[in-house]
Design brief:
- The protein is mainly beta.
- Strands 1-2-3-6-5-4-7-8 form an eight-stranded antiparallel beta sheet, with no helix packed on it.
- About 15% of the residues have low confidence.
- Strand 2 and strand 3 form a beta hairpin.
């Protein structure tokens, strides 16, 4: 019978490094809290948002704002048009006033049209309405 070699002895334990002095911990905490305060105070990078009509039957109309603050590109979307509809007039309203009418075209299953970015200001209600629909989707700029 052969002898099994003994397992090597574990390496000696080294003590943990000493804790940083209280002043260093306090400085690190102060720096972390200052960084958090700056990040919370920063304005958002973008104000992209969307809204849709919430009716279970009939046209589902949506508006999408892409931009920052009061400067946004506006997209009108009809998500569920009949298959045979390939284009339809869509109107853009600002605070209830007609601004423009354009032709939305089919993109996949939806009809869409995007107006280029323009400064509408903040707290401005922008709405889109498709010809033949009583429904209007609206979103307020921030």
């Amino acid at each position: 019978m052969t002898a099994v070699p003994a397992a090597p002895a574990p390496p000696p334990r080294t003590p943990p490094p000493p804790a940083p002095p209280p002043r260093a911990r306090r400085s690190a905490l102060t720096l972390a809290l200052a960084g958090l305060a700056v990040s919370l105070a920063a304005t958002p990078a973008a104000a992209d948002s969307s809204a849709c009509t919430h009716h279970f039957s009939g046209p589902q109309i949506c508006i999408r704002l892409e931009g920052q603050g009061g400067r946004n590109a506006v997209t009108g979307i009809w998500t569920n048009p009949p298959r045979e509809v390939t284009s339809r007039a869509v109107s853009l309203f600002r605070n209830g006033q007609l601004i423009d009418t354009a032709t939305a075209t089919r993109s996949g299953k939806a009809l869409t049209y995007t107006w280029p970015a323009e400064d509408a200001g903040t707290d401005t209600e922008l709405c889109v309405k498709f010809r033949g629909s009583k429904r209007m989707a609206c979103q307020t700029t921030r």
